[in-house]
Amino acid sequence: MAVVHHLHKLLITGTNSGHVGLRLFVSIAFPPRRPGAIGIGIDMSSNENMGFIAIATDVTVVKRAMRIALIVGTVLAVINQGDKLLAGQLDFGMAIRIILTYCVPYSVSTYSSYLAVKDNIQRTARQDNA
Questions:
Q1: Beta carbons of 42 and 53 less than 8 angstroms apart
Q2: Do 41 and 30 form a contact (C-beta atoms < 8 A)?
Q3: What are phi and psi for residue 37, nearest 5 degrees?
Q4: How many C-beta neighbours within 10 Å does residue 84 have?
Q5: How far is CA 71 from the centre of its chain?
């Protein structure tokens, strides 16, 4: 419930910087689960140089991206192709467009998770060196 309140507050009030808003969102919605873990569930204590593929294929990142793609992709598909689907006019081209519609939010979510992980690693490294 507290997460919903904070997210609602973030969405209503906004911030001066989207980057600050993202940090706030990540820290509220995905608190660390164990020492050395970052908010989205990846343990970075053993390897600070994980690349995009390692982060993007983490089970937590994939599950979250799939949930977001399912919700956002469905909304976008209904908005963009709903009238043709209801009329029964599904063809190969439309099927490809619908599949691509789901790929966009999946990609955006995965890349956002990657950026959040890298940002958290850099912030943690700066705090450790200070």
A1: no
A2: yes
A3: -95, 145
A4: 14
A5: 12
